[in-house]
Amino acid sequence: MSEPPYTELDVLIIGAGFSGLYQLHTLRPLGLRVKIFEAAPDIGGVWYWNCYPGARVDTGSECYQFSLSSLWKDWNWTEMFPGQNEMQQYFHHVDEKLDLKKDICLNTRVRSAEWQECEKKWIIRTEDGTVVRTRFFFICAGVNTEPLIPKFEGLDTFKGVWRHTARWPRNGLDLIGKRVAVIGTGASGVQVSQEAAACASKLTIFQRTANPCLPMRQRKIYTCTAELESNKKRKEDLYPAMFRRMLQTPGGLAYTSVPQTTFSVTPEERHLFYEQLYAQGGVGLWLCGYSDALTDRKANDEVYAFWRRKTLRRIKDPKVAEKLAPEHPENAFGVKRISLEQNFYEIFNQDNVELVDLSENPIERISEDGIITKDGTEHLIDVLVMATGFDSISGSITAIDIKGKNGVTIQEKWSQGTHTYLGVASSDFPNMFFTNGPQAPSGLCNGPTCAEIHGEWLANLMKYAQTKHIERIETCPEAEEGWRQLVFGINAMTLFATGKSWYNGANIENKPFEPLSFVGGVPLYMQKCQEVAEHNYEGFVLS
Ligand code: N01
Question: Which of 59, 67, 515, 523 could bridge 243 with an S-S bond, Cβ 3.0-4.6 Å?
Fold first, then answer.
């Protein structure tokens, strides 16, 4: 048991990723005693944990950073879609500039949090037995934090090596010349498969549901020191407007859909527009197309048909092509997160790569030597990669043993459905706030954008509490119900309501199927949060 140099805090933050770091930065000027507890040995959140081969940002890097000029003026991305290593360097740059680490306790995993009504404080206990009392408790633990490791029968008997992508060994895992299996074809599965295909003697990819990927079209931003000066000027011209614009788009990105609807233009215009978006690369065909692509199934089908035509021609074996880009997909295009790929579809043309369609032939069990599918085939492997995703959005909160008022736990409270107000607080849990959590734009918003929106809003709330000598802040069931209705109502107007993915808890057994993100977009979300603040934090009981 370690003795922390403090036992009393004003705010304890969990997590040193984008959200936690920004929160610490915004709370400091208030003169509060604030610390971050971070489970990992370094800062960066998901960008510390996800060090599997090929781990790479799939949002354009210029949007995927803090908007503070003190940070971007001295930072130059080398690639539009940087790898995990460059992301870690970015976090070290942020730390250096903002001098954050002195208030961060690394290797410190919070095990439990218990509200003490008499003291109006949270008692926080860490895995190593440290106990801290804090007035406010902020959970900035990330959207995709808790790995989902399916309970495959026989996994414990497997003689080879198996790893979840978010628990990859820091010193790497040798895939060269190995027989590798990847289960899962989300962003992580796609990225790790591309790398494994280049060096494994055999790569078997187990796909349960086809998940469309768009070409990344990676590009360098600057390559040599001589270009730094021009990059500096370019950033000065571009960035201030870009960061302001990001708050005006649904996804907190510098781009969004066009105002026209799909069938308001001629088929030819539509086709050429899709071609242009596809050629540009990135998420354009998903997020920058016609305004009804994610609300009208027929409009959505047009995008999918275009994407399918493009994809089918990249895969030589028509049977494999049909599995990767089926005529009748399980989900509408983009209601499950679209991944970016570099050569994902071409790897299936290699002799050493095989696709196993789990929808036809599910995994029965893991043997000592491999994976046995329902048809009786034993796929012999040395390395098993679980690219199986996460208990997303709410999972990083429910993973902590949190007891609120009257001993109610957050797991119990959300077991039948998530109840929050503005996606930042939940009744029965006074003085507890979360960022990038359930019912905020979280899963559908650029991470750093959401981190800044919440960071600023919560810092203002703390300032208000300080000024008014408020010690206790709790939302109420009526406010939560109103917010829940809004979140569900907007979701029902979109195709997201029809999709099965981590966006709505469908990937976790027994997790309620419900919208875990606010799909109304960043501008509306900010407006709602601002209105609450302007009305003296209406929906919260302050005392
Ligand atoms: O996880 P996923 P991910 N048997 O949930 C399959 C972010 N991210 O780690 O579709 C067999 O998307 C599952 O199948 P199905 C990004 O936001 C970002 O890839 O449920 N298969 C699916 O194919 C992303 O969206 C970057 O049928 C099983 C896969 O596993 C999010 O993290 C990089 C299974 C899981 O896909 C999550 O991505 C990486 C089972 N029992 C991740 N259980 C960036 O570049 C699950 N699957 C920023």
Answer: 67
Task: Evaluate whether residue 157 is within a structural domain.
Answer: no
Write the Ramachandran bin of 152: left for phi over 0, alpha for psi from -120 to 50, otherwise beta.
beta
Tell me the pTM.
0.96
- Give, for 71, the enclosing helix (H) or strand (E): helix 69-72
The phi, psi pair for 150, rounded to 5°, reads: -60, 145
Residues 407 and 372 in one domain: no
Ligand 1 midpoint to CA 504 (Å)? 13
Q: What is the pLDDT of residues 57-110, one digit of tens each?
A: 988 889 999 999 999 999 999 999 999 999 999 999 999 999 999 999 999 999
Site to probe by mutation for ligand 1, drawn from 342, 388, 444, 509 as the one with most ligand atoms within 8 Å of Cβ, is: 388
- Rounded to 5°, angle at Cα 417 from 416 and 420: 140
- Tally of structural domains, the chain: 2
Same domain, 220 and 369: yes
Atom 18 of ligand 1 has which residue's CA nearest to it? 187
Give the position, in ligand 1's atom list, of the atom nearest the Cα of 187.
19
Per-residue pLDDT band for 1 (boundaries 50, 70, 90) equals very low
Domain that holds residue 346: 213-386
Spacing, Cα 197 to ligand 1 middle (Å):
18
